[in-house]
Amino acid sequence: MDITVDSKINHPRAVVYAAMRDQMASLAPYLPNVERIEVRERKDTTPGVVELVNFWKAAATEIPAVARPFIDPSKLSWIDRARWVDADQTCHWSLEVSFMPERVKCSGTTTYLEDGPNRTAIRMRGKLELDLKGLLPGLIARTATPSVEQFVVKMIQPNLEKTVEALGRFLDTGGRAG
Q1: Are 49 and 84 a contacting pair, CB within 8 Å?
Q2: Residues 7, 56: Cα–Cα separation, whole Å
Q3: Which CATH architecture has domain 2-172?
Q4: What is the pLDDT along the chain (178 residues), one digit of tens a residue?
Q5: Global pTM?
Q6: What are the extents of the domains in the chain?
Q7: What CA–CA distance (Å, rounded) separates 46 from 160?
Q8: b or e along 119-155 (b: 16 or more beta carbons within 10 Å of the residue's beta carbon)?
Q9: Cα separation of 21 and 10, whole Å?
């Protein structure tokens, strides 16, 4: 399943890119479905390349009935592994969900582009793959997979969109949380 998010933000590209990379944890108060974001690891691997590992804890979310057997509400969290490349202002990311990490694969690239004076276009492109084979009998797995996949995309994609909105509000307040 494809994940596509196109957003625009009224702040300069360099500011948007740096804030998204360096201030992610400060955005949690602006995100209604996120309880907290923790930076677990940061490595400046080579000049102009930063690797980050962030932990995201989701706020309470209603889980669809068909997905309840697979998703423990206490495990609605994910690890965001990102490689930020200054040269082309891109972020290559992968998400590891806590409730079925061996069965859910999600990765993509976010590109930050100039969109006029003091305006940035943000393009997120990703893929989500869900594998319920072996977990359930064939017919049930084929029936449940689209519902679980939709739930995961509905959890991830709006948070990607809302993260950009949160960043805009964060920058509008001068980069102060809350």
Answers
A1: yes
A2: 21
A3: 2-Layer Sandwich (3.30)
A4: 788 889 999 999 999 999 999 999 999 888 877 888 999 999 998 999 999 999 988 776 555 555 555 555 565 788 999 999 999 999 999 988 776 667 778 899 999 999 998 999 999 999 988 776 666 555 555 666 666 667 666 666 776 788 888 999 999 988 754 4
A5: 0.80
A6: 2-172
A7: 27
A8: ebbbebebebebebeeeeeeeebeebbeebbbbbbeb
A9: 17
